[in-house]
Amino acid sequence: MSLKSISPCQLLLSWDASELPKKTIAVYFQLHFSDLVTIVRIYDVTDMNRHQVFEFAVPYDNGYWYVKGLAPNRRYIAELGVQLPDFDFFPFFRSNFLQMTASNPSDRDTESHTLFNLYDENTVKWRKHVSTYSYYGELGN
Fold this sequence. Notes:
The protein is mainly β. It has one domain: Immunoglobulins (Immunoglobulin-like, Sandwich). The chain is built from 1 helix and 8 strands. It has one helix at 20-29; strands at 2-7, 10-14, 37-44, 52-57, 64-68, 75-83, 89-94, 98-99. Strands 3, 4, 6, 7 and 8 form a 5-stranded antiparallel beta sheet that branches. The chain has a 3-stranded antiparallel beta sheet with strand order 1-2-5, with no helix packed on it. Strand 3 (37-44) and strand 4 form a beta hairpin. The protein is elongated and about 45 Å long.
């Protein structure tokens, strides 16, 4: 799995859409891969004390996904995995880290508005809003 910068606020995430993760999930969890939602998590790892996580569903078999709305001049790592029935995330691919560049010197210290809502361990706020890319499950207690 790899990340490539397309612009200061956009990247290309690509992975090998092989059968290995599908078979691993089927054997280990005794679940059908087709019954699960494939999730990408983008971690902003610029500040070691303040990680931000963006999460969204993607079609696994595509093998790539464009991510836009990221902040310039930040470091990101991505994971691809599935959302298990008990709402645990099981990653099976992790990318290299990518340093996004600022588009011009005045952008270096500003945070751009992100298209993805922040993932919070206690509440998944973006599930309340319906869009083409929303995951429609509820957070379990």
